[in-house]
Amino acid sequence: MFRMEKHVFNQLYFELVECGLKATKQMEVQEMVAMFLNMVGHGVGNRMIQERFQHSGETVSRHFHKVLVACLNLAFEYIKPQDYRFHHVHTKIQKDRRYWPFFKNAIGAIDGTHIPCVISPSEQPKFIGRKGYPTQNVMAFCDWDMCFIFALLGWEGTAHDVRVFENALTTPTMNFPHPPSGKYYLVDSGYPTPIGYVGPYKCERYHLADFRRSFRFENYNEVFNYYHSSLRCTIERTFGVWKNRFAILRCMPKFKFETQVQIVSATMTIHNFIRKKSETDSEFKRYEDENIDEYENDNHISEDQSLPLTVTSSTEIDLVRDSIRDQIISHM
Protein backbone atom coordinates (compact mmCIF):
# COMPACT_ATOMS: atom_id res chain seq x y z
CA MET A 1 0.00 0.00 0.00
CA PHE A 2 2.80 2.44 0.89
CA ARG A 3 5.23 1.05 -1.72
CA MET A 4 7.73 0.17 0.99
CA GLU A 5 8.26 -2.62 3.50
CA LYS A 6 6.50 -2.38 6.85
CA HIS A 7 9.70 -2.07 8.88
CA VAL A 8 10.86 0.77 6.62
CA PHE A 9 7.54 2.57 7.08
CA ASN A 10 7.90 2.23 10.85
CA GLN A 11 11.43 3.62 10.79
CA LEU A 12 10.31 6.48 8.58
CA TYR A 13 7.59 7.72 10.87
CA PHE A 14 9.89 7.41 13.90
CA GLU A 15 12.48 9.61 12.19
CA LEU A 16 9.81 12.08 11.07
CA VAL A 17 8.76 12.39 14.71
CA GLU A 18 12.36 13.25 15.55
CA CYS A 19 12.16 15.91 12.82
CA GLY A 20 9.24 17.59 14.56
CA LEU A 21 6.14 15.72 13.36
CA LYS A 22 3.65 15.46 16.25
CA ALA A 23 0.35 13.67 16.75
CA THR A 24 -2.80 15.75 17.17
CA LYS A 25 -6.17 15.13 18.79
CA GLN A 26 -7.47 14.22 15.34
CA MET A 27 -4.68 12.02 14.07
CA GLU A 28 -1.74 9.81 15.05
CA VAL A 29 1.60 10.24 13.32
CA GLN A 30 1.32 6.87 11.57
CA GLU A 31 -1.93 7.95 9.93
CA MET A 32 -0.45 11.30 8.84
CA VAL A 33 2.48 9.54 7.19
CA ALA A 34 0.18 6.95 5.60
CA MET A 35 -1.96 9.69 4.04
CA PHE A 36 1.09 11.52 2.77
CA LEU A 37 2.57 8.37 1.20
CA ASN A 38 -0.73 7.58 -0.48
CA MET A 39 -0.81 11.02 -2.03
CA VAL A 40 2.79 11.11 -3.24
CA GLY A 41 3.16 7.41 -3.96
CA HIS A 42 -0.12 6.70 -5.73
CA GLY A 43 -0.84 10.21 -6.91
CA VAL A 44 -4.34 10.25 -5.38
CA GLY A 45 -5.96 13.59 -4.61
CA ASN A 46 -7.42 15.12 -1.48
CA ARG A 47 -10.94 13.84 -2.21
CA MET A 48 -9.80 10.24 -2.47
CA ILE A 49 -7.85 10.57 0.80
CA GLN A 50 -10.95 12.01 2.48
CA GLU A 51 -12.92 8.90 1.53
CA ARG A 52 -10.15 6.45 2.38
CA PHE A 53 -9.18 7.93 5.78
CA GLN A 54 -12.50 9.56 6.73
CA HIS A 55 -11.22 13.07 7.39
CA SER A 56 -12.26 16.45 6.04
CA GLY A 57 -10.46 18.02 3.12
CA GLU A 58 -9.05 20.74 5.39
CA THR A 59 -7.69 18.14 7.80
CA VAL A 60 -6.08 16.15 5.00
CA SER A 61 -4.44 19.26 3.55
CA ARG A 62 -3.17 20.52 6.90
CA HIS A 63 -1.59 17.21 7.87
CA PHE A 64 -0.13 16.69 4.39
CA HIS A 65 1.83 19.92 4.82
CA LYS A 66 2.94 18.93 8.31
CA VAL A 67 4.47 15.71 6.98
CA LEU A 68 5.97 17.63 4.07
CA VAL A 69 7.78 20.00 6.45
CA ALA A 70 9.10 17.07 8.47
CA CYS A 71 10.38 15.41 5.26
CA LEU A 72 12.19 18.62 4.33
CA ASN A 73 13.88 18.59 7.74
CA LEU A 74 14.86 14.96 7.17
CA ALA A 75 16.35 15.91 3.78
CA PHE A 76 19.34 17.56 5.50
CA GLU A 77 20.31 14.15 6.84
CA TYR A 78 19.58 12.02 3.77
CA ILE A 79 20.32 14.10 0.66
CA LYS A 80 24.07 14.39 1.04
CA PRO A 81 27.19 12.29 0.47
CA GLN A 82 27.94 9.75 3.16
CA ASP A 83 31.54 10.98 3.10
CA TYR A 84 32.30 14.43 1.67
CA ARG A 85 35.91 13.37 1.05
CA PHE A 86 34.86 10.22 -0.83
CA HIS A 87 37.68 8.21 0.72
CA HIS A 88 36.37 4.77 -0.21
CA VAL A 89 35.84 3.25 -3.64
CA HIS A 90 32.31 1.94 -3.98
CA THR A 91 31.84 -1.82 -4.37
CA LYS A 92 29.96 -1.20 -7.63
CA ILE A 93 33.26 0.02 -9.08
CA GLN A 94 35.48 -2.54 -7.37
CA LYS A 95 33.43 -5.59 -8.35
CA ASP A 96 32.79 -4.78 -11.99
CA ARG A 97 35.58 -5.48 -14.48
CA ARG A 98 34.20 -2.79 -16.77
CA TYR A 99 34.97 -0.12 -14.20
CA TRP A 100 37.87 -1.37 -12.06
CA PRO A 101 40.42 0.11 -11.80
CA PHE A 102 39.67 2.59 -14.58
CA PHE A 103 36.92 4.53 -12.80
CA LYS A 104 38.18 4.13 -9.23
CA ASN A 105 38.07 7.92 -8.77
CA ALA A 106 34.53 8.35 -10.12
CA ILE A 107 32.30 9.39 -7.22
CA GLY A 108 28.92 9.85 -8.88
CA ALA A 109 26.91 10.92 -11.91
CA ILE A 110 25.03 14.06 -12.92
CA ASP A 111 22.00 14.65 -15.11
CA GLY A 112 18.89 16.77 -15.43
CA THR A 113 15.26 15.78 -15.68
CA HIS A 114 11.90 17.52 -15.96
CA ILE A 115 8.98 17.20 -13.55
CA PRO A 116 5.50 18.36 -14.66
CA CYS A 117 4.26 21.40 -12.76
CA VAL A 118 1.11 23.48 -12.48
CA ILE A 119 1.66 27.17 -13.21
CA SER A 120 -0.63 30.15 -13.75
CA PRO A 121 -1.20 31.04 -17.42
CA SER A 122 0.81 34.26 -17.08
CA GLU A 123 3.87 32.30 -15.89
CA GLN A 124 3.63 29.38 -18.27
CA PRO A 125 5.89 30.72 -21.09
CA LYS A 126 8.91 30.40 -18.76
CA PHE A 127 8.06 26.83 -17.86
CA ILE A 128 7.03 25.33 -21.21
CA GLY A 129 10.23 24.08 -22.85
CA ARG A 130 10.93 21.22 -25.21
CA LYS A 131 8.41 18.99 -23.42
CA GLY A 132 5.52 21.10 -24.65
CA TYR A 133 3.96 21.45 -21.19
CA PRO A 134 5.00 23.26 -17.98
CA THR A 135 7.87 21.55 -16.18
CA GLN A 136 10.27 22.11 -13.34
CA ASN A 137 13.87 21.57 -14.41
CA VAL A 138 15.68 19.43 -11.84
CA MET A 139 19.41 18.74 -11.76
CA ALA A 140 20.56 15.88 -9.55
CA PHE A 141 23.77 14.16 -8.50
CA CYS A 142 23.67 10.52 -7.43
CA ASP A 143 26.18 8.11 -5.94
CA TRP A 144 26.65 4.50 -7.04
CA ASP A 145 24.02 3.34 -4.52
CA MET A 146 21.39 5.16 -6.63
CA CYS A 147 20.93 7.74 -3.86
CA PHE A 148 20.60 11.47 -4.50
CA ILE A 149 23.49 13.35 -2.90
CA PHE A 150 22.61 16.80 -4.21
CA ALA A 151 19.72 18.34 -6.12
CA LEU A 152 19.03 21.78 -7.53
CA LEU A 153 15.27 22.27 -7.81
CA GLY A 154 12.76 24.84 -8.95
CA TRP A 155 14.22 26.01 -12.25
CA GLU A 156 11.85 26.82 -15.11
CA GLY A 157 11.41 24.21 -17.82
CA THR A 158 12.94 26.58 -20.38
CA ALA A 159 16.18 26.90 -18.39
CA HIS A 160 19.16 25.34 -20.16
CA ASP A 161 20.55 22.38 -18.19
CA VAL A 162 24.05 23.80 -18.44
CA ARG A 163 22.88 27.03 -16.83
CA VAL A 164 21.50 25.07 -13.89
CA PHE A 165 24.80 23.16 -13.66
CA GLU A 166 26.79 26.40 -13.69
CA ASN A 167 24.62 27.88 -10.95
CA ALA A 168 25.29 24.88 -8.69
CA LEU A 169 29.05 25.08 -9.19
CA THR A 170 29.42 28.83 -8.74
CA THR A 171 27.01 29.62 -5.88
CA PRO A 172 28.77 29.18 -2.50
CA THR A 173 25.52 29.03 -0.51
CA MET A 174 24.43 25.89 -2.38
CA ASN A 175 26.55 23.67 -0.11
CA PHE A 176 27.45 21.79 -3.26
CA PRO A 177 29.63 18.66 -2.73
CA HIS A 178 32.53 19.61 -5.00
CA PRO A 179 34.75 16.66 -5.92
CA PRO A 180 37.97 16.43 -3.88
CA SER A 181 41.27 16.64 -5.72
CA GLY A 182 41.71 13.64 -8.01
CA LYS A 183 38.04 12.63 -7.84
CA TYR A 184 35.39 13.36 -10.44
CA TYR A 185 31.73 13.07 -11.43
CA LEU A 186 30.59 11.64 -14.75
CA VAL A 187 28.59 14.00 -16.96
CA ASP A 188 26.76 13.76 -20.29
CA SER A 189 28.19 15.23 -23.48
CA GLY A 190 26.21 18.46 -23.23
CA TYR A 191 27.84 19.62 -20.01
CA PRO A 192 31.11 21.52 -19.76
CA THR A 193 33.95 19.52 -18.21
CA PRO A 194 35.94 21.61 -15.75
CA ILE A 195 38.36 19.80 -13.44
CA GLY A 196 36.39 17.19 -11.51
CA TYR A 197 33.85 16.44 -14.26
CA VAL A 198 34.57 13.81 -16.91
CA GLY A 199 32.43 13.65 -20.03
CA PRO A 200 32.52 11.36 -23.08
CA TYR A 201 34.30 11.98 -26.36
CA LYS A 202 32.06 14.11 -28.55
CA CYS A 203 31.14 13.30 -32.13
CA GLU A 204 31.32 9.58 -31.27
CA ARG A 205 28.63 7.06 -30.34
CA TYR A 206 27.76 7.40 -26.69
CA HIS A 207 24.31 6.27 -25.55
CA LEU A 208 23.81 2.59 -24.78
CA ALA A 209 20.94 2.26 -27.25
CA ASP A 210 23.36 3.17 -30.05
CA PHE A 211 25.76 0.41 -29.01
CA ARG A 212 22.96 -2.16 -28.78
CA ARG A 213 22.19 -1.62 -32.46
CA SER A 214 25.81 -2.31 -33.41
CA PHE A 215 28.21 -3.36 -30.70
CA ARG A 216 31.37 -3.30 -32.84
CA PHE A 217 33.57 -0.38 -31.79
CA GLU A 218 34.75 1.94 -34.55
CA ASN A 219 37.65 3.36 -32.54
CA TYR A 220 39.13 3.55 -29.05
CA ASN A 221 37.15 6.65 -28.13
CA GLU A 222 33.95 4.66 -28.61
CA VAL A 223 35.27 2.04 -26.21
CA PHE A 224 35.68 4.70 -23.54
CA ASN A 225 32.25 6.15 -24.32
CA TYR A 226 30.61 2.75 -23.88
CA TYR A 227 32.14 2.19 -20.45
CA HIS A 228 31.46 5.79 -19.42
CA SER A 229 27.82 5.57 -20.53
CA SER A 230 27.30 2.21 -18.81
CA LEU A 231 28.39 3.70 -15.49
CA ARG A 232 26.92 7.18 -15.86
CA CYS A 233 23.46 5.78 -16.64
CA THR A 234 23.20 5.04 -12.90
CA ILE A 235 21.68 8.51 -12.62
CA GLU A 236 19.10 7.65 -15.27
CA ARG A 237 18.15 4.47 -13.43
CA THR A 238 17.97 6.49 -10.22
CA PHE A 239 15.50 8.84 -11.89
CA GLY A 240 13.62 5.78 -13.13
CA VAL A 241 13.05 4.17 -9.75
CA TRP A 242 12.25 7.54 -8.16
CA LYS A 243 9.63 8.53 -10.74
CA ASN A 244 8.14 5.04 -10.84
CA ARG A 245 7.66 4.96 -7.07
CA PHE A 246 6.12 8.43 -6.70
CA ALA A 247 3.21 8.93 -9.09
CA ILE A 248 2.82 12.54 -7.95
CA LEU A 249 5.95 13.35 -9.97
CA ARG A 250 4.12 12.39 -13.15
CA CYS A 251 0.98 14.43 -12.45
CA MET A 252 1.55 17.23 -9.95
CA PRO A 253 -1.53 18.57 -8.09
CA LYS A 254 -2.47 22.26 -8.10
CA PHE A 255 -0.29 23.33 -5.21
CA LYS A 256 1.55 26.64 -5.27
CA PHE A 257 4.86 26.25 -7.06
CA GLU A 258 6.94 26.47 -3.87
CA THR A 259 5.05 23.47 -2.51
CA GLN A 260 5.58 21.57 -5.77
CA VAL A 261 9.33 22.12 -5.41
CA GLN A 262 9.18 20.93 -1.80
CA ILE A 263 7.35 17.77 -2.87
CA VAL A 264 10.19 16.93 -5.25
CA SER A 265 12.68 17.31 -2.38
CA ALA A 266 10.52 15.25 -0.01
CA THR A 267 10.19 12.37 -2.47
CA MET A 268 13.95 12.37 -3.06
CA THR A 269 14.40 12.16 0.71
CA ILE A 270 12.05 9.18 1.03
CA HIS A 271 13.73 7.56 -1.99
CA ASN A 272 17.10 7.77 -0.23
CA PHE A 273 15.60 6.66 3.08
CA ILE A 274 14.19 3.49 1.53
CA ARG A 275 17.47 2.74 -0.21
CA LYS A 276 19.42 3.00 3.02
CA LYS A 277 16.93 1.08 5.16
CA SER A 278 15.94 -1.77 2.85
CA GLU A 279 18.14 -4.31 1.11
CA THR A 280 15.23 -6.07 -0.60
CA ASP A 281 13.11 -3.21 -1.94
CA SER A 282 11.47 -4.43 -5.15
CA GLU A 283 11.61 -1.07 -6.96
CA PHE A 284 15.36 -0.75 -6.51
CA LYS A 285 15.91 -4.40 -7.38
CA ARG A 286 14.10 -3.89 -10.65
CA TYR A 287 16.17 -0.87 -11.69
CA GLU A 288 19.46 -2.43 -10.66
CA ASP A 289 19.18 -4.45 -13.86
CA GLU A 290 21.37 -2.50 -16.26
CA ASN A 291 19.84 -4.23 -19.28
CA ILE A 292 16.33 -2.81 -18.97
CA ASP A 293 15.46 -0.13 -21.48
CA GLU A 294 12.61 1.80 -19.90
CA TYR A 295 14.82 3.97 -17.71
CA GLU A 296 16.54 5.41 -20.76
CA ASN A 297 16.48 9.17 -20.29
CA ASP A 298 14.94 11.26 -23.06
CA ASN A 299 16.25 14.46 -21.56
CA HIS A 300 19.72 14.48 -23.06
CA ILE A 301 20.81 18.06 -23.41
CA SER A 302 22.11 19.52 -26.62
CA GLU A 303 25.17 21.64 -26.89
CA ASP A 304 24.62 25.38 -27.12
CA GLN A 305 27.88 27.04 -28.05
CA SER A 306 26.21 30.47 -27.90
CA LEU A 307 25.42 30.12 -24.20
CA PRO A 308 27.77 32.43 -22.25
CA LEU A 309 29.37 30.46 -19.42
CA THR A 310 31.76 31.09 -16.56
CA VAL A 311 32.27 27.35 -16.06
CA THR A 312 34.31 26.08 -18.99
CA SER A 313 35.93 22.82 -19.98
CA SER A 314 39.49 22.06 -18.96
CA THR A 315 42.22 20.48 -21.06
CA GLU A 316 43.52 18.91 -17.85
CA ILE A 317 40.39 16.81 -17.45
CA ASP A 318 40.72 15.79 -21.12
CA LEU A 319 44.08 14.26 -20.20
CA VAL A 320 42.42 12.37 -17.35
CA ARG A 321 39.88 10.99 -19.81
CA ASP A 322 42.62 9.99 -22.26
CA SER A 323 44.44 8.19 -19.47
CA ILE A 324 41.32 6.23 -18.52
CA ARG A 325 40.73 5.32 -22.16
CA ASP A 326 44.30 4.07 -22.56
CA GLN A 327 44.00 1.95 -19.39
CA ILE A 328 40.81 0.36 -20.70
CA ILE A 329 42.41 -0.41 -24.05
CA SER A 330 45.49 -1.93 -22.44
CA HIS A 331 43.28 -4.37 -20.47
CA MET A 332 41.21 -5.49 -23.45
TrEMBL record:
<keyword id="KW-0540">Nuclease</keyword>
<dbReference type="InterPro" id="IPR027806">
    <property type="entry name" value="HARBI1_dom"/>
</dbReference>
<protein>
    <submittedName>
        <fullName>Uncharacterized protein</fullName>
    </submittedName>
</protein>
<dbReference type="Pfam" id="PF13359">
    <property type="entry name" value="DDE_Tnp_4"/>
</dbReference>
<feature type="domain" description="DDE Tnp4">
    <location>
        <begin position="110"/>
        <end position="272"/>
    </location>
</feature>
<dbReference type="Pfam" id="PF26138">
    <property type="entry name" value="DUF8040"/>
</dbReference>
<dbReference type="InterPro" id="IPR045249">
    <property type="entry name" value="HARBI1-like"/>
</dbReference>
<keyword id="KW-0479">Metal-binding</keyword>
<dbReference type="GO" id="GO:0004518">
    <property type="term" value="F:nuclease activity"/>
</dbReference>
<dbReference type="InterPro" id="IPR058353">
    <property type="entry name" value="DUF8040"/>
</dbReference>
<feature type="domain" description="DUF8040">
    <location>
        <begin position="1"/>
        <end position="71"/>
    </location>
</feature>
<dbReference type="GO" id="GO:0046872">
    <property type="term" value="F:metal ion binding"/>
</dbReference>
<dbReference type="GO" id="GO:0016787">
    <property type="term" value="F:hydrolase activity"/>
</dbReference>
<keyword id="KW-0378">Hydrolase</keyword>
<keyword id="KW-0539">Nucleus</keyword>
<comment type="similarity">
    <text>Belongs to the HARBI1 family.</text>
</comment>
<dbReference type="GO" id="GO:0005634">
    <property type="term" value="C:nucleus"/>
</dbReference>
